Amino acid sequence: MPIDNRDLDQLRMMTKVSHLYHTRGLVQTEIARTLGVSQARVSRLLSAAEGAGIVRTVVVTPQGLNADLEDRVETMFGLREVHIVDASGESESQRTETLGRALASVFRSYPIDGKTIGFTSWSRSMRRFVDNLPRFSHGKATRIVEMLGGVGQPTVQHEATTATERFARLTDAEPVFLRVHGVAPSVEVRDAILANDPFARQALDALDELDIALVGIGNATVVAPLVAGDNFFTEEEFAHARELGAVGEINLRFMDENGTPIDGDLDPHVVGVTLEQLRRADQRIAVSGGESKHRALLAAVRGGWINVLVTDEESAEYLVEHGPATS
Asked: Residue 59 above 60 pLDDT?
């Protein structure tokens, strides 16, 4: 059923008032004066926007609430920052939303002026991070660079592109897309793609200059909504990687339980950031949680591939229990 014009006008006003109040930081009297309406109407519109889901309340864990556990993880693994949220009793999708919001709360305080930022646009947590990120008013990034080519069905790739575009707008940066297969069927096909796509080569070159990297951690399995094959690894290829000792991957670069890269025959098929490029980034930020990611997350911190972590209490306790790699 089409929306009535009066309802549409009301939605526009609710959205406009919410933008001015929550994004621009104007107080209600300023909004009323700007729009030529009463302050009482501004207040009613803000309340209605919350009820309509235009504005979503974010609960931010107070600093220091998990300070002891955060300090233990930081000290044990040499991490720069650890931020722990309570996601107990949440479903996987709810945990993804919680972690994405938490990362947005953390990231908004970072200096981004002149930075080249690598972004894992296909990660669900990273897309939720962008959904909850306010516009930066204290700096402008230079580039938002996709760190992995396209994976998944067209709908997923569209969501990834949209997230990259939105992230770039929020940071006043240039979006640099990597719109080729994330996993090529053969090395020959990969080389042919790169030889004939100057934009892909530009994106891969930009990965040499990362200041901040927002990475994706996987558990060496196919996780919905991604599907095996096509522009992604098959079930058999993931099984082969696990046979070689892989417990997880960072942007599809496989690693063993100690975070040591798996030198297998699948790595050359990936079109995206290398672990060497990732290591050179000053800030390497991961958001990961849930039991299915425990071993992969442990490998990532053991290997030193990340130095900033947003995770849940259960995962942080798992890291402490198992500790750094032993020689």
From this structure: no
